[in-house]
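Amino acids appear as letters; backbone shape is given numerically. Here is one record.
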Amino acid sequence: MTTPSFPMSKRGARGYRVAEVDRFLTAARAAFDGDDADADDPLTSADIRTTSFRLRRKGYSVPHVDAALERLEDAFALREREGAQALEGPDAWLGEARDSAQVILDRLSAPDGERFDRAARLKLGYSVEDVDAFAAAVADYFQGRRGLTVAEVRQVAFRPQRGGYRDTDVDALLGDVVAVMLAVR
């Protein structure tokens, strides 16, 4: 019997499916070590950021796995940045990050209540008020008016709201914010 990679979820709580997590981490380790050089679609920090696992009872502890995925994403992002800077030069890499930040700022410059598409009236989305407030904080960060950490972006939570902002749109933008922040670390 092998030792689990992470603590198991607490009794009565659901956790990530052990086999899925272990399979993903094995593939990530191979990708990071360069053992998947023949892979047609190499694993990237963005892939790690958007990875999800199904839940079940007696699974791995969600907070522990999520923390490990964040560290793994950071390591892949650092490697990607170093590789791109070696290939294109640091100025080109920073230029791309600046361009991405400008696209984000352009999106966030829309008026409150109009920054993202809305979920259907009876469907749950993210609270427009919560998202708009955090969007203002992100805009202030990119304009140098306040500090913001990658952890704050990764861990932000919004209240649910019927007819609120479509969660997939907000999540995609938050992923882009994390990518830019990791690019310029």
Observations:
- The first strand starts at residue 14 and ends at 16.
